[in-house]
Structures are given as C-alpha cells and as structure tokens.
Design goal:
The chain is α/β, with parallel strands linked by helices. Helix content is 48%, strand content 15%.
C-alpha cells in the first residue's frame, strides 16, 4: 500500500476505485483500515473513489503523540492527505471514533466536505467513561507501572508494532512520564466534550454543520440510538436511516450485528452520495 509522509508521520493508505466522487472512511476505536475496507469496496463498486487509511497510532502508520486533542491531530492528518490526493471536497465518513473525527473535520474544514456519512454515533455517560479508560486511562496506568515496554505489550500497541515493526523503537524511545502526560492531555480533551448528547460536539457545534449528512444510529451501550437521533435532530441538513431496529443493552459494542448489515449500510450511503455528488 502507498505511504504518505506528512506532518512528521508516515500514513499507510489505499484508494479503492478510479473515478467518481471522493469518499474518506474511518473505523471506530483505534482500528486499522481493514475495519472499513469492505464497506469502502462496496461504495467504490458504485462509482466512487474511496480513501481508507490507518490514522497515526493505528494499523501500519507511525506512532506519534502530540497536540492537545487526538481527534484534532487526526483531523489535520486527514486534511493534509486529502489535499495531497487532490480529493476535496469529499464525503467524510466514520463509525464511532471515526464519526467524531468526521464531525470535527467538518467543523474545522467545512469547504473540504461535500457531505457526511455518520454511523454508530457515540453518546452517553457509560460510553464516555468506558472510552476515556480504553483510549487513555489504561495507557497512563501502564506507562506509570511498567514504562514504555508495558505500553508496547498492550493489546493495541502489539498490533501496531506487528503491522509496522519500526513503531517498537519509536515507542521504547519515549519517556514514559512524558507519554503519560500526553495521554492525560488527550483524556482531558475527550472529557471536555463527554457530557454532550453526541460525545465531543456541543449542540451549537452540531447546529453549525450545514452540509448534507446521513446519520445511521448505533444500537448498543456505547453507541446509543438516542445519540444518532440527537445528531439528526440538531444538524440542519441531516437525514436519518436505521439499519438495526433492535437495541442491544447487553452489549458494549455490537460489531457482529453491523457486519451482517454492511450491504444495507453501503446501499444507504451510495444513494446519499448519488443525490449529493454534484452540490
């Protein structure tokens, strides 16, 4: 796959399809591009060029820890990558953390956005507490307890090192106290927006997003249906579609349910893209 060196990191990416409107997709959590590539392939079959990529600290891309907000760093990486590919304006899509990235991207770079594809919107106190620990708290604890060797041995960073062995030396070269302090800055930034109906975005920020948006709510404890409904209600030009009608309060993340409905999700997004491709 191609590698783009930008903003001090190497970003692993792939463009699927050779013509049509541009679409950029981001998976949830800190998952690698494989999390959205099957969906991207279905959208590309309909006549789109789809960018899938590993965000920094994910998949085979470089690790680097800087800035006050992880999402804002990801936003600027994506903007730089799309600019280099001459791919703006694009449809920006994402699931869960990728959904937050898409929304923050639209706030920061509205002229680069043709429309938003948002699924599994995150909201609620349970989600905020769980994700703050999963994204940041566990790594703060590991760094204090066992240094960067313990961070390297965590499930997430073992995968990152396996995908890009050079990342091990980068991680071990970091001062664990400084790393933990950076994780704390990112955790604080995340917590600053954790009480909103849509984590990370205030109602006023959502109201300011006037580009077309396609919202597909989640159905589990981290991705409450009410969060997707709030996004639809607050965004002036949003439309709402349900892929899964049964709520799963027994599950933190209902990934298997979504994998079974990927064809329907792709069809909803393809229809939306076709209706808004020439705006």
């Amino acid at each position: 796959m191609p590698i783009a060196s930008l903003r001090g990191v190497d970003i692993n990416y792939e463009v699927i399809g050779g013509r049509g409107p541009w679409v950029a997709l981001q998976p949830g959590g800190r998952r690698a591009l494989a999390g959205v590539k099957p969906l991207g392939e279905k959208i590309a079959e309909a006549g789109c060029r789809v960018l899938v990529y590993d965000r920094r600290n994910c998949g085979a891309s470089s690790v680097a820890f800087e800035g006050q907000s992880e999402n804002e760093v990801w936003v600027e990486d994506l903007h730089e990558l799309l600019t280099r590919l001459d791919a703006t304006p694009a449809f920006i899509g994402g699931s869960s953390s990728g959904c937050r990235l898409a929304l923050r991207f639209a706030l920061r770079h509205p002229a680069a956005v043709r429309g938003l594809l948002l699924w599994r919107v995150t909201g609620g106190r349970y989600a905020a507490e769980r994700l703050a620990q999963n994204y940041y708290g566990q790594f703060i604890e590991l760094a204090h307890r066992g240094g960067m060797a313990a961070v390297c041995d965590s499930e997430h960073f073992r995968e990152v090192v396996a995908a890009n062995p050079a990342n091990r030396a980068r991680l071990l070269g970091l001062d664990p106290t400084a790393f933990a302090a950076q994780m704390e800055r990112w955790r604080q930034s995340f917590n600053d927006g954790a009480d909103h109906a849509v984590i990370g975005l205030s109602p006023d920020e959502l109201r300011s997003l006037t580009m077309p948006a396609c919202v597909v709510p989640g159905n589990d404890r981290v991705h409450l249906r009410s969060a997707g409904q709030a996004a639809h209600r607050l965004m002036p030009n949003a439309e709402y579609h349900e892929v899964l009608s049964e709520d799963r309060p027994d599950l933190d993340i209902a990934l298997e349910d979504w994998e079974a409905k990927e064809g329907l999700l792709a069809a909803i997004f393809i229809d939306f893209i076709r209706r808004h491709a020439n705006r």
